[in-house]
Amino acid sequence: MANRKKSAIKRHRQDLKRRARNMNTRSKLRTLVRNISSAIDSKDLPKSREMLRVTISEFDKAASKGVIHKGTASRNISRFSKKVYDLSKSLPQSSPT
C-alpha cells in the first residue's frame, strides 16, 4: 500500500483499476490471436476474414489507449493481414454463375 497521503492512496486506487483494465485488454488480444491463427490454420477463409476485422479493431483500440505500443499493433495487424491475403490466394476461387 502507498504512503498515508490522500494523493498517494488515490493514485494507488487508480493504478489498480488501470492494471485490471490493461490485463483484460491483453487477455482479449491473446484470445483473438489464438482464434485468428486457428481459423487461418484450418483454411477457413470467411471466418479468417471476420476474425481479421475484429482483431484489427481490437489491436487499434489497445494501441490508442496505450496498452500496447503502436508499432506492436501495426506489426501484428500486418502479419495477420498478409496471412489472410495469402490464404485467399491459395484457395481456389469459386466463380459466380
Describe the protein's architecture and organization.
This protein is mainly α and 97 residues long. The chain has a single domain, classed as Ribosomal protein S20 (Methane Monooxygenase Hydroxylase, Chain G, domain 1), CATH 1.20.58.110. It is 80% helix and 0% strand. The protein has helices spanning 6-41, 45-65, 70-90. The protein starts with 5 loop residues before the first helix and ends in a 7-residue tail after the last helix. The model has no long low-confidence stretch (mean pLDDT 92).
How many separate domains?
A: 1
Number of strands: 0
Alpha-carbon Rg, integer? 19 Å
- Give the helices and strands as they follow along the chain: HHH
Q: How many helices in DSSP terms? A: 3
The major pleated sheet works out as: none
Which runs of at least 5 residues are low in confidence (pLDDT < 50)? none
Give the integer mean of the pLDDT values.
Answer: 92
Under the CATH scheme, which class? Mainly Alpha
CATH architecture: Up-down Bundle
Strand content: under 5%
CATH superfamily: Ribosomal protein S20
Principal-axes geometry comes out as elongated
Quickly give the structural class: mainly alpha
The N- to C-terminal Cα distance equals: 69 Å
Short description:
The protein has 97 residues and is mainly α. It has 3 helices and no strands. It is elongated and about 65 Å long.
Blueprint (SSEs and pairs):
Elements: H1 6-41, H2 45-65, H3 70-90
Helix pairs in contact: 1-2, 2-3
Keywords:
0% strand; 97 residues; mainly alpha; 3 helices; Methane Monooxygenase Hydroxylase, Chain G, domain 1
